[in-house]
Each structure stands twice: as C-alpha cells, then as structure tokens.
Design brief:
This protein is an alpha/beta fold. The strands form 2 sheets. Strands 3-2-1-4-5-11 form a 6-stranded mixed sheet.
Length: 208
C-alpha cells in the first residue's frame, strides 16, 4: 500500500491541532496544537510552520483531512472553511472525519466495542459506539451519562469523575491518531460535499 502525504486539521475538539505526515511513518509526522482562539489565519500560520519544519510545501500534500464535528461550533466552521479554501486553491483530494470517530481510534488495542464520549454541556454527552475496527455500531447521539452503555471500552478527551475507573482519556493531539490507526484512515469520507456537512448534533447558537 502506498501511503499519501496528508495534511490533517482539527479545529473542533479541545485537543485540536494540525498534523502533516505519512501514515505509519512516525518519523514523518509533525504536529502542533491550536491556541485557545482558533481562526483561519491561525490555522494557515500553523500549516505554514509545520510544512517548513517538514521541509515540504502545499504542493507536496496529496490529501487534506478535516474534522467536521461535533465540538466547538466556531471551530467546526473555521476548520471546514479552511479545508475548502485549500482544496479550491490546490486541487488536492479532501475528506472528513468526525470527532467521535477520532476519539474512538485513540483507544489502544481494543478487545471489545468502543464508546466515544464528548462533553455536550448541559450534563449531556455526545456519544457513539464502534467496533474494534471502528465500524459503526450506533449512530452519534446526545445522552445523559447514566444512559451510556458501560459494557464497552469508554474513551473521552476529558476525565469524567463518575466513570474514572473504566474511562480511558487520550493525551495527544487528537488528529495525530489518524497517522497511527489505519482503521481511522479508512473512515475518511472523501469528496468536497462532506465539507458542507458539519456534524453539530445540536443546532448552532443564534446570535440575536
């Protein structure tokens, strides 16, 4: 299998960032976290910085992958818009992943189904269950914590006090797991049409 050189963008999650590199080749991977505020300008600056470190240019990129949510409403929009702009300006292949798919991929050596959890505020959680190979078992939903299936591996981006003993909390920049988990790469939905399908689960807030 010939692995492509990938630019990956995640402005949606709390552990968001930019990564460039080649699948299954850790020496090629360069990663940078986002600052607290996330704008298109900051994303482009990070991309330029990482490509400089990698001694690459945008012309060397084969594929662009971006997280389409759920997560920060602003971050989702900024990430998708940046990927769309890069796609139009370079003609590079583009695709998307969901935050829940990426979170599930962080669990090391799973032996049973994996449930990804993401704080949705209001004492609720975005959740989705996957097989060991990241096949969908359930669709993404919003649930109360007491209704989450616990007979699975539970994984989250932040600690959850009531699930402390059985919860796995990943500690790297989320999008970096794309480069080490080929099951996650196989989940990428290719095509610019996916850049117009943010996964909010809840309607975005309305500014009055």
């Amino acid at each position: 299998m010939e692995y492509k050189y990938i630019l990956a963008i995640d402005a949606a999650s709390k552990k968001g960032g930019i990564a460039v590199g080649t699948l299954k080749k850790p020496d090629s991977l360069f990663v940078a976290p986002f600052p607290q505020s996330r704008t298109s300008g900051e994303i482009i600056t990070l991309i330029d910085s990482l490509l400089l470190k990698a001694k690459k240019t945008l012309e060397d990129i084969d594929e662009i992958v971006v997280i389409r949510g759920p997560g920060s409403f602003t971050g989702i929009r900024v990430g998708l818009a940046t990927a769309m702009g890069l796609h139009y300006s370079t003609g590079k292949k583009v695709g998307t992943l969901t935050t829940l798919e990426a979170i599930a991929a962080t669990f090391p050596n799973p032996t049973k189904n994996i449930t990804a959890l993401l704080d949705a505020l209001r004492n609720e959680w975005y959740t989705q269950t996957f097989s060991c190979t990241l096949e969908d078992i359930t669709p993404p939903k919003i649930k109360k914590l007491d209704s989450i299936e616990e007979d699975t591996h539970l994984v989250s981006e932040t600690p959850i006090e009531t699930l402390e003993k059985q919860l796995y909390v990943y500690n790297k920049i989320l999008i970096s797991y794309l480069f080490t988990n080929t099951h996650l790469y196989k989940k990428v939905k290719w095509g610019q049409e996916w850049l117009t399908k943010p996964l909010y689960l809840r309607p975005p807030p309305i500014n009055k």
